[in-house]
Each structure stands twice: as structure tokens, then as C-alpha cells.
Amino acid sequence: MSEVQQAASDSNAQQRGLFLLFQLGDERYACDVASVVEVLSVPALRPLAGMPDWVAGIFVHDDQVVPVLDLCALTLGRPARRQTSTRLLLSRYGREGQQGSAAVAQNSAPLFGVLVERATATLRCGVHEFSQHGLEQREKDYLGPVRRDERGLVQRVSIQRLLTEEVHSLLFPADKLLVLTPSAAAGETSS
Length: 191
Fold this sequence. Notes:
The protein is α+β, with helices and mostly antiparallel strands. It has helices at about 5-15, 70-75, 100-105, 165-170, 180-185; strands at about 15-25, 25-30, 40, 55-60, 65-70, 85-90, 110-125, 145-150, 150-155. It has a single domain (about 15-170), classed as CATH 2.40.50.180. It is built from 5 helices and 9 strands. Strands 1, 2, 3, 4, 5, 6, 7, 8 and 9 form a 9-stranded mixed beta sheet that branches. It starts with a helix and ends in a 6-residue tail after the last helix. This is Chemotaxis protein CheW. InterPro entries: CheW, CheW-like_dom_sf, CheW-lke_dom. It comes from Proteobacteria bacterium 228.
């Protein structure tokens, strides 16, 4: 292989991404695995009174209280079905374009979870294989370009774009994190 062919091959390999496939209702979606810290079975979630329906609740992961968004509720207006293939995607908060920020890179950015249905496969493809569909989805800015395959269309979801200013202020008020100490985890409080 010539140097030019090798360089082109290396460039194409760098443009390829790994995506987690999931469904919302009957439609297929994909998110870049680079934005996912961990994929978990859905833990017991504590609901929070007064929150929108798409805030599924909170749970504790590695001594940190983690807020969880329900992508089905946010996108389709109904809660995610609790099936064996329903998963919680754990991600770190970093504003769009700031994924390489020091906090995210050092794993000190706050965690948040996203519930998705039928997360059962991955897709390795070129990022360029997703193309804009020409329609603007202002209310659903996290829904991105689409890719066509033998089963139809797959739409990309930006996990980071789920956190609009409104969502950010709900989940991370004043960017305060609740980290559990051993006494707080045991239910003790101090005044």
C-alpha cells in the first residue's frame, strides 16, 4: 500500500465512530460511545417531587447522587418501558464543544444518567455516513443527522445536547454536587 493510500486509510479509520444503538418506541437511534462513561442495568431510582416527567429520579453511583433523564419521556411523552433491554447510559456533564475540558477529562465533571429502551447493539461506521435531513428540530436539538441502512433510518442523539440551560439548571443548580459521606449514606444528618 502506498503512503497516500495508507494516509487515506488512516484518515478514514479516524473518522469512524462506535455508536450504541437503542430505540425510542419503534424508531432506532444511536449515540457516540465516547460520550458514555458506563452502560448500566436500570437501578432503583428515587423519584423527585416537582420535577418534569422526563426527570426519572436519582440514584447513588460511586458515592455521588446522579440525576437521571428519561429520553422516552423527553422525546415521546411517555416513560421508558422497564424491560431487560432498557439501560441507563451514564455520562459526564460537559457543555457541547467542551468535551475535552479539564473537568470532563479528569472525571470530576458531574455524572448524569439517561434511560433508553432496547439498547442491545453497537454500530461502527463513519461519522460522515450520518447526514442532515433538512428539517430543523428546535425543540429537540439533541436529535441529529440520520443514517440509512437495510432496516431503515438511524438518528444520532447527542447526549450532551440533552442538557439545555433549563435541564442544566434543574439537574445541577449552581453546579453544586451532592457527594455522600459515610454518615450521609447511613442516613445521618448534621445541622
